[in-house]
Design goal:
The structure holds two protein chains of two kinds.
Chain A: H1 3-10, H2 39-46, H3 50-67, E1 70-73, E2 80-83, E3 86-93, H4 95-119, H5 124-127, H6 133-137, E4 159-166, E5 173-179, H7 186-199, H8 201-206, H9 215-225, E6 236-240, H10 248-258, E7 261-264, E8 268-271, E9 274-279, E10 282-285, E11 288-291, H11 295-298, H12 314-319, E12 324-326, H13 343-351, E13 358-359, E14 363-364, H14 368-376, E15 381-385, E16 394-396, H15 402-414, E17 419-423, E18 429-434, E19 439-448, E20 450-453, E21 458-460, E22 465-469, E23 483-490
Parallel strand pairs in A: 3-23, 5-13, 6-7, 6-11, 11-12
Antiparallel strand pairs in A: 1-2, 4-5, 4-20, 8-9, 9-10, 14-17, 15-16, 15-17, 18-19, 19-22, 20-21, 22-23
Chain B: H1 3-33, H2 41-51, H3 55-61, H4 67-76, H5 84-97, H6 104-122, H7 127-148, H8 153-183, H9 189-202, H10 206-212, H11 218-227, H12 235-250, H13 260-274, H14 277-282, H15 285-308
Helix pairs in contact in B: 1-2, 1-4, 1-5, 1-7, 1-8, 1-9, 2-8, 5-6, 6-7, 8-9, 8-11, 8-12, 8-15, 12-13, 13-15
The chains are: A alpha+beta, B mainly alpha.
Chain lengths: ~500, ~325
């Protein structure tokens, strides 16, 4: 008798009655047997009495609470701190699968960079009519100010978070969206791994999991290389909007891990197009800013004048070549959801290669034919606003009410450029602990790997953030919508 | 070091010290009153509110100062920015803002204390246990700082905040008690010495006092709290610590000063070193203490102006 079936006999184990159902399950195959690469961990979990698992789960939660890894919810008017739910069952990826993902992402990030360089430079791609000029210029995040401005080492996207999903229908990974402005979540990848190592130390002895903790070192090396001043005493800082930003923990965590200063807009001042920070002994020159503030709020003199978190004069210093910014200003013209549809074309155009990872089929509502197709099929489709992120401005047709659908129909007609539509992808699922029933239940997951680009090579820490929709049946994985996260294991081999 | 970070460290020091001091006076007063006739309640709890400088705010909200209202107001009221829980909230907020600059241990310690007190409050814990947790928290805080923080400029700003807060608080405790015990209505002799014992206990100096002096005398209590060179809660001790930290940051040599904060600190430290308690009493203790408190406030402002918020000339 295998340990799993033993566990089932006693009735007090985690996988009792587990049914992977009609979706692709990341851990359990359709026959109910664990997938070969996940078998070791599955057996371990299956043999674990519920009480032991519960105890470890509490320990893990406590460790997040003690460290203050919380996000703030303002719905009750007071600002309540919540834990970002963490699920102890890892998502396991065999090496051969990861190699494909890695190749696909590297290719995509390079293409995005070439596209940005081109759009803000000679605009070959527009002249060759690969993508309509009007579509590019109408992007909410297109920055006219960047035209003709040379950025350090021609890198625009130093950090990209590219969201992948696995389509249950084909078992293939698809790119769901690109995040080329300031993707967040990497701190959860690193902390989740830390907690997993503490919670299941023995599992790491048997499963050969590739490490992720080199991320901060790799990032800071890229940041240093951007400095306009030569030498090795460059000052690199991380610019945060401040404590009340929901990603503040991450900003602080990364600054500490990289050994750089965490600054707010009010710590910086621009004098004669040079950026300084205010220290107790006067002003210190700053060379590189890893900014976690949107373009709009970066410099009240250049962009939104009501920004209180930005640095007046920063764009002038940038233009003068006295400061490097990561990511560059204006990268939003590459991760707009309508532009997304053209990324496979970018790959062919700039690299002369076929895309390794496919896009989700996408209808652009700016195209009249696509629009009428979409309007006819709203209840079956997912509709997204092009410039939004975080699961906002979205309609999920199959689970929306009639009123919601009709409201979206009006919005689509009023501003078609602002929307795209995609089929509902049957996302793969992964066993996750269901607190209500006290056992494992399949839940939908996505995957956000973090890519670092140094101008030549793309470095990707193996795995990334697996987000999980903890609500039964839900397809939305965002933390603001009841999502949680899992540790993602890329194995050294395939078993 | 960024000015904003130095500012946060300074305030973490102040808030943690303020929470600790408030818990001490609250706890000691409560225990002292357990043995007193209940009709002296008003008399006994009012000064406590006065020490924290929140008299107006208190009387806007409560009719009478008694063990319950004082505990609520000083212990965990959200409407009192200087209540113990609010001090911890502020210290935690500051620590969270600069958590990349302090040790993980220190952040987890302050965060842990915050969660512990929130839990105690929701479980309606007694005053004694609440204060006990705060005091233990204070000791742990000092221990964790000592054991895990680098002795850099940040360390000195933390020390500056703690020393300044402690010096000011000790001066205020002495001032308020003097008012009530000497100039207030007649109190039995026995009750009076009882009250001085409470004062000493609130600054953890009772055992030390007994070893130094034979009887409880207001002048000797004042001497210890103001001028003693060895007790870690005396005003002189703390102003000395303040002076050391200020000089460590600016690099100016002893006997000189690089800024107004150092000049004021040096001047008052000299007085506390070379004046004796008889002289201070002869020229009026209350005046002396008033001036001392205003100097402490001044030093705080000057530190802020020199290091945290200075004008940048473009």
């Amino acid at each position: 008798m295998s340990s799993a079936s033993l566990a089932q006999a006693s009735g007090r184990y985690l996988f009792t009655g587990y049914d992977p159902g009609p979706f692709y399950d990341e851990m359990v195959g359709p026959n109910g047997e664990p997938r070969p690469w996940a078998a070791a961990m599955f057996e371990k979990l299956a043999a674990m009495p519920l009480e032991v698992f519960e105890e470890r789960r509490k320990l893990a939660d406590l460790s997040y609470l003690v460290q203050g890894i919380t996000f703030t919810v303002y719905s009750d008017g007071r600002g309540t701190e919540r834990l970002f739910p963490f699920d102890l069952v890892p998502r396991i990826i065999p090496r051969s699968e990861w190699d494909v993902i890695e190749r696909g992402l590297a290719q995509r990030v390079k293409a995005l960079n070439l596209y940005l360089q081109d759009v803000y430079g000679s605009q070959r791609i527009l002249k060759d009519r690969i993508i309509p000029r009007s579509l590019v210029y109408s992007c909410k995040h297109f920055r006219r100010e960047m035209a003709g401005l040379r950025v350090p080492r021609d890198i625009y996207v130093h950090i990209a978070g590219i969201d992948l999903v696995r389509d249950s229908a084909t078992g293939q990974y698809l790119v769901l969206e690109d995040n080329a402005r300031s993707p967040s979540g990497i701190s959860y990848v690193l902390e989740n791994r830390l907690v997993m190592r503490r919670t299941f130390p023995r599992a790491f002895e048997t499963c050969e999991v590739l490490p992720v903790d080199h991320y901060p070192a790799a990032l800071v090396q890229i940041l240093r290389s951007l400095s306009p001043r030569a030498g090795d005493r460059q000052v690199v800082v991380l610019l945060t909007p401040g404590l009340y930003n929901s990603a503040y923990f991450e900003h602080s965590f990364l600054a500490q891990e990289m050994g750089i200063e965490l600054v707010e807009g009010r710590d910086l001042v621009v004098v004669d197009d040079v950026v300084y920070m205010k220290t107790i002994h006067g002003l210190t020159r700053v060379d590189v800013i890893y900014r976690r503030i949107d373009d709009d709020f970066l410099d009240p003199l250049a962009f939104r004048s009501d920004s209180l978190v930005g640095v007046p004069g920063l764009m002038n210093a940038y233009r003068a070549g006295n400061i490097a910014l990561a990511n560059a200003v204006g990268t939003g013209v590459s991760d707009d959801k309508a532009i997304y549809a053209y990324v496979p074309e970018f790959i062919r155009y700039y690299l002369g290669e076929e895309p390794v990872l496919r896009n989700v089929e996408t209808w652009l509502c700016s195209n009249p034919a696509h629009l009428s197709y979409v309007l006819d099929r709203l209840p079956e489709l997912v509709v997204k606003a092009v410039g939004e992120s975080g699961g906002y401005g979205m309609l999920i047709g199959p689970s929306a009410s009639r009123q919601e659908i009709e409201a979206f129909r009006d919005r689509l007609k009023a501003d078609p450029r602002n929307y795209i539509a995609q089929p509902v992808i049957p996302l793969s699922r992964c066993p996750s602990f269901d607190t209500a029933s006290g056992c494992m239940s399949p839940r939908h997951v996505d995957l956000r790997p973090y890519c670092l680009y140094d101008g030549d090579n793309v470095t990707i820490v193996p795995g990334g953030l697996t987000r999980v929709a903890l609500k039964r049946g839900s397809l939305v994985v965002n933390s603001s919508q009841g999502g949680g996260s899992k540790d993602t294991w890329v194995l050294r081999g395939d078993e | 070091m960024l000015s904003r970070i130095a500012d946060s460290l300074f305030w973490i020091g102040r808030y943690m010290e303020r929470a600790d001091n408030t818990a001490r006076i609250l706890d000691v007063n409560y225990h002292m009153l357990l043995e007193q006739p209940p009709d002296t309640y008003k008399l006994r709890w009012d000064p406590l509110i006065a020490i924290t400088g929140e008299r107006t705010r208190f009387h806007e909200r409560y009719e009478e100062a008694n063990a319950q209202t004082a505990f609520e107001f000083l212990g965990f009221s959200e409407e009192n920015p200087n209540s113990i829980s609010q001090c911890i909230v502020s210290a935690r907020e500051n620590a969270r803002t600069i958590r990349d600059r302090i040790s993980r241990e220190l952040w987890e310690d302050i965060n842990g204390l915050y969660h512990k007190l929130s839990k105690m409050r929701s479980e309606d814990e007694s005053l004694t246990r609440f204060c006990d947790a705060v005091k233990r928290g204070g000791h742990r805080f000092h221990g964790v700082c000592d054991a895990t923080l680098t002795r850099d400029e940040g360390w000195h700003f933390l020390q500056t905040g703690m020393a300044l807060e402690r010096a000011e608080m000790t001066a205020r405790i002495l001032d308020v008690h003097f008012h009530r015990l000497l100039e207030g209505p007649q109190i039995l002799n026995q009750a009076r010495s009882h009250a001085w014992v409470a004062v000493l206990k609130s600054v953890a100096a009772y055992e030390f006092y007994k070893r130094q002096y034979t009887q409880i005398e207001p002048m000797r209590v004042s001497e210890l709290l103001l001028l003693d060179a060895r007790h870690p809660r005396s005003v002189r001790f703390n102003l000395g610590a303040l002076q050391n930290s200020l000089h460590a940051v600016s690099g100016s040599i002893p006997g000189t000063y690089a800024n107004e904060a150092e000049r004021l600190t040096g001047r008052v430290f000299e007085r506390l070193t070379y004046d004796n308690i008889e002289e201070i009493f002869n020229s009026g203790l209350h005046n002396f203490l008033t001036e001392l408190q205003s100097t402490c406030r001044n030093i705080g402002e000057q530190i802020t102006r020199t290091y945290f918020y200075y004008a940048v000339v473009a």
